[in-house]
Amino acid sequence: MQKRSISLAVAVAASLAASPATRAQEPDTGDLLEESAELDKFVVTADPLGSQAEELPIPVGVLTGEQLYLRNNGGAVGEVLEGQLGVTGSYFGPVSSRPIIRGQQGPRVTVLENRIGSLDVSDLSPDHAVTVDPLIAEQIEVIRGPGTLIYGSGAEGGVVNVVTNRIPKQLPHRTVTGAVEVRGDTAASEEAFAAKADGAFGNVAWHLDYVNRETDDVDIDGYATRTSIRREEAEEGEPVEEEKGTLANSDSDSDAYAAGLSWIGETFTLGASYSKYENNYGLPGSSHEHEHEEGEGHGDEEEEGEGGAKIELDQDRVDLYGEYTGFGGPIKALRFEAGINDYEHTEFEPDGEAGTKFENDAWEGRLELVHTLGEWQGVAGVQVLDRDFKAVGEEAFVPQTDTNSLGLFLLEERRFDDLRFSISARYEALEHDPSGALDEYDENAGSFALGFVWDQGQRLVPSLNLAYTERHPKAEELYSDGPHIATGLFEIGDASLGKEKNKSVDFGVAYRGSRVRWGVSVFYKAAGDYIFLRENGEVEDGLPVAEYVQDDAIFYGYEAEVETHLAKTAYGDLDLRLWTDIVRGELDDSRQGNDDLPRIPPQRFGASLGWLAERWSAGVDWTRYMGQGRVSDFELETGAYTMLDAHLLFGFDLGPGHLDLFIRGTNLLDERGRRHASFLKDYAPIPGQSVHGGVRFHFL
Fold first, then answer.
1. CATH number, residue 626
2. Number of folded domains in the chain?
3. Entry pTM
4. Is pLDDT above 80 for 203?
5. Residues 418-441: pLDDT tens digits?
6. Residue 625: which domain range?
7. In what helix (H) or strand (E) does residue 89 lie, and over which residues does it extend?
8. 406 is a domain residue
9. Is pLDDT above 60 for 182?
10. CA 243 from chain center: how many Å?
11. DSSP of 528-587, one letter per residue?
């Protein structure tokens, strides 16, 4: 007999408490928060030592189970994680939304699929989609703070690891297992279908999965374009023409499928998978940008675009995995992982003509040696990346660039009585070789981190993480030179940019009681030679000019939550969760005038009330997004808004499997909110009031 969970939310190790976990069977005694501690037991696969969340000195979140299932609308990783502590989505429409962690986005947050980079170009521009559909995820791991250096200098702001079973690493408990799922919503008229199956014959395990999503233009409250912009352009004789209540050109049609095969023995595993991802989606706001550009730079001879620009994306990917554990002695395992990628997407103009084409042929590999040396356990490894990037067309604002990097890393851990101590270090050599006469970038970077968790077996557990990290500039920061319609800017890079040098501290305290659990994490980062995009007040090709510049900056903030078990009755259990987070980002001095950095998310407050019964769960979630008045030059403020969501989920045992039915309402107040961290906030508010529903059948 199963009890259903309200929120299977984020399990935060060492600094933040976890949300209630799904129970495999109804317990005889004890209350929910005692059992919810099991979420801390989840193995964090992004950690090369396979540690549980509660054992790590860095803030780690694990999104799995029903919460992942309930939030899996839209197909963008950033939207699935929106609202988790310290995390928001970049929101360039419902398809293109990348995670933002503690105010860090784009090239500072690395998205992984099974510990290997997504190998797309989503970090290049906010309108480029991540090529991992969350519907195939078993769990999604979020690592915040500075303890991410084993994944490269580009992971300095955080890591999001989407865990799938595309390469099986364990033999299934039955010959065939799997699930079939159908879901939809009203705001985007989404129709989604997903299926996956796992099985084995002898020592050979196999996996298949398929996902299809189709959406129409998203319903919104009012007009998409900000009122002040509509008024200003009307006064200039160029009124914005758009349909009220609709985010134009936000439709999408995607397919993703994969097949994997592994040989799994007692000490040796070898596997491979092939996956394909296709997505044809619109770019909200592009109609306005193209009309503006044509009016400014091309005169009346151009026809006004209708419908907006589209992206047609295609990725073929092969992943490899191997592990040997039969050494004995101090060597525990030798592990190899790799991803090989053939990616391209074409941006079509509003008139349907092919515009800019992006190609990204890349491969990434990791080799790790897990070992013990006396009281120490650790992993030593090497990471290699080879990337050939090319963009051809009128809006190819970044030149063809070949990027190669070699990283060496070491992570060691030891327990001293009640103190768990970890130390990690990374050396990375990176080379950007652009076409033409542009200067080559060829530099080395070094990083290290120290972590402490004081666990006395008591309920109160403090932790501390210190780090010094260096980040190489990305190709777009060095070599951009041209109009970037997605950001609405004419971007200019600087080939003389150097490394960022970051000093970070993260301190947390978690309390794990039987009826109350709470956690607080505070962080501070001094970013030396921080690279950011700054507008200079000039106009080129009808677009504001923005330059990539360097200056010292600081980021600081906190994340906090508390959960309490309110009541346990014969009709179910009632729990309450309260939370808040905030990040500030500003220049370390005022030499540039205004010292506020652009696109920093505002403070948020949240409350969740959940009711758990034997076969069903229900919950109400309230989130208050505060207004953001701390803005950079040429950036508009955003107002506050409130999100009210609710859900109801039923579960049934049906002989050979289990059936889940759910209904979820989002933005029930039909608020017109704008994500301050989004480049598109002035032209794309969040989706309006929507009802989501779905059914999922597990055959066991």
1. 2.40.170.20
2. 1
3. 0.90
4. yes
5. 888 999 999 999 999 999 889 999
6. 170-699
7. strand 87-89
8. yes
9. yes
10. 31
11. EEEEEEEEEEEEETTEEEEEEEEEEEEEEEEEEEEEEEEEEETTEEEEEEEEEEEEEEEE
